[in-house]
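Aim 2, interim progress: modelling of the magnesium ion-bound target.
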Amino acid sequence: MTKAAPAQIEQAADLIRDGGLVAVPTETVYGLAADATNDKAVARIFEAKGRPQFNPLIIHVADAAMAKRYVKFSPLAAKLAGEFWPGPLTMVLPRRADSNTSLLVSAGLDTVAVRAPAHAAAQALIRAVDHPLAAPSANRSGAISPTTPDHVRKSLRDKVDMILDGGACIIGIESTIVAINDNDVTMLRVGGITRDAIEQFLGRSLAEAPISQTPQAPGMLASHYAPQAPLRLNTSAPRDGEAFLGFGETETTSPYALNLSPSGDLRESAANLFAHLRRLDDLCAEHNLRGIAAAPVPHAGLGEAINDRLKRAAAPRSA
Ligand code: TXA
Ligand code: MG
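Predicted structure of the complex, ligand included:
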């Protein structure tokens, strides 16, 4: 992780105050950030991403004290924040009636998704602006999330006013999203904090969201995080003319192979996932390959989130 200079943080903060869009590093993926209290700035996010307007955004705060200004922070939310913030846990909580966050952020829902990122540059920027930052992943809607400044440049180029360089994201997969209702904690999206970690901390199982209550937001659509090339899952070896995404000890003679983690480490795999998919996608285009074959990844721990993203990347495309 490289450290953004104070002058860059100041420049980014000025742009955000003026209603601009800044790509911000977080420990999960790069976010496309705007002042969450500025309607026009939030609208620009949807425009830049080509994202359907009705999908709600996460607001990024420095800590629980700041979150309490915008959402009703129940004792259970406070308990989870105490354990997992700053970090890749997003909580969906009731919006406070006196909150000045743009209604576009919650897209008509009476809840807001909130998280405190654990990246020094993101923290410094939020504190400098002292407003929450609305930020989805900094990629075109439906495409692979960015884990380096270069990924952002390739996907959004002229649509972003500044890219704050914080190096490669150390977790590499989006935050875990839970909804909190009274005493229920419901899993909405698996991500950088494992289900096990939350369940062990709470001493009970998480509830699953009934499909009807799951907003049809991009990260929950069947096809998402998708490369251009078709992706074939759970295969021990590539066919002729396929690139290969390996995991653990794999044998392949394909010259177009990358390994998520030769030692079978799931953290390393999560950190490499999106960068490797992008690289293999580029190789498919450059060498006219027919697609990407991917080795099976175990489901335990972060494997659940990795498999979730692989499954969505492999799903039939809607358009
Ligand atoms: O790690 C992350 O979460 C990254 C970084 C930048 O923080 N952000 C991210 O944002 O992945 P995005 O917009 O790509 O995904 C946010 C997800 C959406 O899929 C949406 O379903 C969910 O958050 N969401 C936001 N507000 C919600 C709400 N009020 N109720 C339910 N889900 C919500
Ligand atoms: Mg996204």
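Residues 136-137, 145, 218-219 surround magnesium ion (ligand 2) (CB under 6 Å). The first strand starts at residue 22 and ends at 24.
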